[in-house]
Amino acid sequence: CWKEPLYVLDKQRDANVLLLGPRGAEGIGGCVCREVNEAVPRHLWPQTLLAKTRYREAPKPCRAELVETASGPELHIHFLEPEDNVAPGQIAALYAPLHGHAEEDGRPVLCLVAGGVIASAVKR
């Protein structure tokens, strides 16, 4: 019986295994996404983007690149600070601040630039 919430750390479908652990157990440095959708052409992305891997969490700074593979494009996301609980099957969305635009509270308006389904997490 765990006294704290557990989060999905990894899915191993072939072995029928779902790996669970507490928040912060992984210290993820990045992830690889497949089924990529590019909303803004890559050459227009700023060097530093903001990534969201969970709906209710704030976007986190990252760098990203599109990599062409034999099975199609992959989105490689490198978090600037270690992330917690990035698991395969989740969606990763990349955003960029829309320059010259801000919310009423001063936060920048974000523009979706790309996204994909997380295929694997990369430990730091």
Quick check: average pLDDT?
A: 87
Structural classification: mainly beta
- What gross morphology would you assign? globular
User: Any low-confidence stretches, pLDDT <50, length ≥5?
Assistant: none
Count of distinct strands: 8
SS strand fraction: over 45%
Strand order of the largest sheet: 3-6-5-4-7-8
Oligomer designation: single chain
Termini Cα gap = 29 Å
- Range of helix content: under 10%
Counting DSSP H or I runs of 4 or more residues, the number of helices is 0
What can be said about the biggest beta sheet? 6 strands, antiparallel, barrel
Order of helices and strands: EEEEEEEE
Rounded to an integer in angstroms, the radius of gyration calculated over CA atoms is 15 Å
Write the layout of secondary structure elements.
Elements: E1 7-12, E2 17-21, E3 28-38, E4 49-52, E5 60-69, E6 72-83, E7 91-102, E8 108-123
Keywords:
124 residues; six-stranded antiparallel barrel; two-stranded antiparallel ribbon; 8 strands; 61% strand
Written description of the protein model:
The chain is mostly beta strands and 124 residues long. The protein has no helices and eight strands.
Short description:
This protein is an all-beta fold and 124 residues long.
